[in-house]
Amino acid sequence: MEAAGIDVAVRYRPVGEGHLVGGDWYDALLMPSQDVLLVVGDVAGHGIDAVTGMVAARNSLRGLAITGSGPAELLRMLNGVMCDLTSGVVGTVVCGLFNPDTSVLRWARAGHLPPVLVRGRTACELPLPGGVLLGMDPDATYEEATQSLEPGDTLLLFTDGLIEQRGESIVDVLREFVATVAPVPAGQEASQPTAAAQADRILATAVSDTDDDACLVAVRIR
After folding, report:
1. Rounded to 10 degrees, what is the CA torsion of 104, 110, 111, 115?
2. Are 46 and 23 in contact (CB under 8 A)?
3. By CB distance 3.0 to 4.6 Å, which of 82, 102, 188, 219 could disulfide with 134?
């Protein structure tokens, strides 16, 4: 990703002890256009069925991305694959294309939590474009949003297993999560933490008690 001027770190925490993979998935891929495809998804369920669905979704989206379509159209086509060519696979996904020349992110989502933008000492959720879960409605369409990014910004894409808590609204726990990701640890105010350092800190401090897979992708703009 050096050619695109970004620093990417991934942290993956499968729920099953002794297992190295679950239903959560991610991708960070430099496309022939030099845009960067950024994806995080979550296939419903656990075990081998979830892993099989995850592999199908990830590989399908990689193949579709080579068409040069935008994020909303990619999700529309991926939803068609999940509805018509796979059996009972349902999930969420957030899909973005980052243009390093304009520093603009185009993104769409299918029932997924929004990315979180960390800029300086503040953090915020990106406004949600519309989009239902994958595999639910073969005629579903998806909205697309744009976000300008600046040097030093960090974009966080993650699955709900990173933050969800039993008995708590996902809206409330997301708000609490956003409040914790921006503060810079004492002694690091003058430094620019790498994507890896930020991902490590977030994974260590994020609270979740639902025994779900968790995936976090941190993208820092250089």
Report:
1. -20
2. yes
3. 82
State the 10-residue block means of pLDDT for the chain, 222 residues long: 87 72 87 95 80 88 95 97 85 97 97 96 96 95 98 96 90 93 63 89 86 91 94
> β-pairing, 104-110 with 145-148?
antiparallel
What are the angstrom distances between the C-alpha of 140 and each of 17, 108, 113, 134, 178?
36, 13, 18, 9, 29
Query: Which residues does residue 217 pair with via DSSP β-bridges, in sequence order?
Result: 10, 157
DSSP symbol at 2: G
Report the greatest alpha carbon distance in the chain: 53
What CA–CA distance (Å, rounded) separates 188 from 176? Answer: 22
End-to-end Cα, the chain, rounded Å: 11
Burial of 167 (0-12, 13-18, 19+ CB in 10 A): exposed
3-state secondary structure of 20: coil
3-state secondary structure of 175: helix
Question: What is the rounded distance in angstroms from the CA atom of residue 42 to the CA atom of residue 57?
Answer: 10
Q: In what order do the strands lie in the sheet with 24-30?
A: 24-30, 36-43, 91-99, 104-110, 145-148
Both tokens assigned to 117: 């933008």
pLDDT at 187: 56
